[in-house]
Amino acid sequence: MGIIFYLLHPNQLRSIIQWKVWHEPVHRRDPSKEAPTLRACFEHLNKTSRSFSAVIQELNPELLVPVCLFYLVLRGLDTIEDDMTIDIKEKEPLLREFDQYMEKDGWTFTKNGPNEKDRELLVHFDDVIAELKKIKKPYYDVIKDITIKMGNGMADYAKNAAFNEQGVATIKEYELYCHYVAGLVGDGLTRLFVEGNMANPKLLERPELTESMGQFLQKTNIIRDVHEDYLDKRRFWPKDIWSKHVETWDDLFKPENQRKALECSSEMVLNALKHTEECLFYMAAIKDQSVFNFVAIPQSMAIATLELVFRNPAIFNSHIKITKGDACQLMTESTQNLQVVCEVFRRYIRKIHKKNDPRDPNFVQISVQCGKIEQFIDTLFPRQDPKKLGESAKQKERGQPGMDPGEAFILGGMVLLTLFFISGLMIGTAWFFGARFDTLWKTDGVYWPSTEPGSAQPIDHKEL
């Protein structure tokens, strides 16, 4: 964005400067103490992920390398799955047996198409393999298990001709796809967090919380990227939803169907919003600040993105995203605590509720869901202090005034300020219309006769 934008939106520039100047990482990675292969892994991380690279490198040292390698392994899988130049006969076994390849010393893959943006990661995948052998076995076992599950899931979708030609058909298929590409990632990360004693072990007993974290992120991305996917001939919006509004998938992108398209996107947003409460509940179980930052930042970005795309016709003809200034503000807020993150969610939920259109078939459901989210946040962090409410109730029962000394002081101050303001207004009005207040203070005035020697004395009119 240009200089003019920031001149017109100074708050955006302020947020960027605040993040750049005042953000202090909880942990700092020290490249000087790393082996060449590990430094190479972080270089691959920087190249393959703009959004996750920074937060990964600020993680607790216990989890820094395992999470980095976990990301790179799954990115390698994804690079093979996304490459349409690889024949399915070669792609399927690669995906299903990727966990075996990552155990082979020196294994690399050079058959990606020249335009595949992350092909360099697989060309130098031997760096990742070398570092995988150095991490603790429990961490390695988690990475391997998720790699097996995700590889098989990707292979199933890659050879599914109906999916490749017609896209996602049902909501169940839609959520299964999100599970494979995001839910499994959340599962692996949660197990890593618990293994590193950075999260409450009870999370392992509530897999639906972990699943919602991944589903919420992936569904938000799918809604936002609908135009980009349309150009690539991919359909991730389930037919169960879009067929209620238009006859064919292409109809969504026709200008004359804008109202129907917006109503369809509203239903997609509603489907994503149902995960919000469980995402907040999940974050309450994180015990380490760096891990909290790692999980909270993407979630805050997601709710902001969801508000941006809600009833926004631009998603059907361009690729939109939140501004850099908004992103920096969200990162600043999301690296504090759960209460601040909840306020972020509350702020954007209210914006969604405000944009909700009564003519939309999903109006009532969206309004109800927004209300449920706010209500859930209030159960975590009540806006009114229960102790004060209890004291106020007792005072009412005893017939005592319910105002505390602080409130009384503020009220008294407001009364005095009001009196001063009104007095000043009256005096100013009188002066404006010609009143001479200066004569009141003259020592030789009529009202205040002077007693100083040599001053003019009043004339004594003797009796004639």
Automatic annotation (TrEMBL):
Where is the major localization of this protein?
A: membrane
One GO BP annotation of this record: farnesyl diphosphate metabolic process
Q: Which reaction does it catalyse?
A: 2 (2E,6E)-farnesyl diphosphate + NADH + H(+) = squalene + 2 diphosphate + NAD(+); 2 (2E,6E)-farnesyl diphosphate + NADPH + H(+) = squalene + 2 diphosphate + NADP(+)
Instruction: Give the signal peptide, or none.
Output: none
Keywords in alphabetical order: Lipid biosynthesis, Lipid metabolism, Membrane, Steroid biosynthesis, Steroid metabolism, Sterol biosynthesis, Sterol metabolism, Transferase, Transmembrane, Transmembrane helix
Q: Name one GO cellular component term.
A: endoplasmic reticulum membrane
Which EC number applies? Answer: 2.5.1.21
For activity, the cofactor(s) needed are: Mg(2+)
Subcellular location per the Swiss-Prot or TrEMBL entry: Membrane
Q: Which regions span the lipid bilayer? A: 408-433
The record's listing under PANTHER family reads: FARNESYL-DIPHOSPHATE FARNESYLTRANSFERASE, SQUALENE SYNTHASE
State what protein this is by name. Squalene synthase
Organism annotation: Colletotrichum sublineola
